[in-house]
Write a structure and sequence with these properties.
Order of helices and strands: HHHHEEHHEEEEE
Number of helices: 6
Helix content: 55-70%
Radius of gyration: 23 Å
Shape: globular
Largest sheet: 5 strands, antiparallel
Strand order of the largest sheet: 6-5-4-3-7
Number of strands: 7
Strand content: 5-15%
Distance between the termini: 60 Å
Length: about 240
């Protein structure tokens, strides 16, 4: 089954919009801004979409190098290579989600997520803390990767002969969660860069209006003509 050019353009547009929305949903959630104010423009879609494509190009190149790099001696077993290939994006997403949860003090969410991750990894890994028959105080942590087996949804995809689309859809969902987490982290580590009339924080600049707030409790739109924009002075600027 091949896709026509029109369908490919449609899918790229959907991906660009949903990736941008996921990023700003995480950013607005981190700043306690109602997500109803999210406004995705063509410029935003291009900026986030192009950045995502560039990052993923380098990432997939690295993964392919590990998985198919017969000329590169990486001292990795076949199971290890396939495990990295299958779970690498999940590890990256987990890292950003952990940082976001810590910065937001979402400890229960983080604990629940780690419990789910542990239950998943138990199916992928053999974990032991001591050898069989050894005394309890002789702790010897050991980890081994099990031969990878297809999960339930992958088996169903194989039966319907849509395995490739299943893989693409899985990576699509993973990227949505990743961009949400990246947006949340950005909301915690970035400062307000633009102000309106000296003391009003500018949250979003639209075509004719700007979304502003004073205390992140009340929000309103103002006409661009009614704002005198100022930006903080950077170090080294006069």
């Amino acid at each position: 089954m091949t896709l026509s050019d029109g369908v490919k353009v449609l899918l790229l547009s959907i991906c660009g919009y949903t990736f941008s929305y996921a990023f700003y949903f995480g950013y607005f959630s981190g700043r306690s801004i109602p997500f109803e104010f999210i406004n995705i423009t063509l410029g935003v879609m291009l900026k986030i979409g192009v950045t995502t494509c560039i990052v993923m190009s380098f990432f997939t190149y690295f993964i392919d190098l590990i998985h198919d790099g017969d000329d590169v001696d990486l001292y990795l077993s076949e199971n290890t290579k396939r495990f990295i290939y299958r779970n690498s994006i999940n590890f990256i997403t987990g890292f950003f989600f952990t940082v976001y949860s810590i910065l937001s003090s979402e400890w229960l969410t983080l604990l629940f997520s780690y419990m789910v991750a542990y239950a998943y990894l138990r199916k992928e890994l053999d974990l032991s803390f001591r050898e069989k028959g050894a005394p309890w105080y002789k702790i010897k942590f050991k980890i081994a990767i099990k031969p990878l087996r297809p999960i339930g949804t992958a088996i169903i995809a194989d039966k319907f002969n849509v395995r490739s689309y299943y893989v693409y859809f899985s990576w699509y969902l993973s990227l949505l969660i990743l961009l949400f987490s990246v947006g949340g982290v950005c909301s915690k580590i970035t400062k307000d860069n633009l102000t309106c009339n000296d003391n009003i924080k500018v949250l979003q600049v639209n075509e004719d209006t700007v979304l502003v707030t004073l205390d992140y409790k009340e929000f309103k739109f103002m006409d661009k003509k009614d704002c005198r924009f100022t930006a903080p002075i950077r170090n080294g600027s006069k």
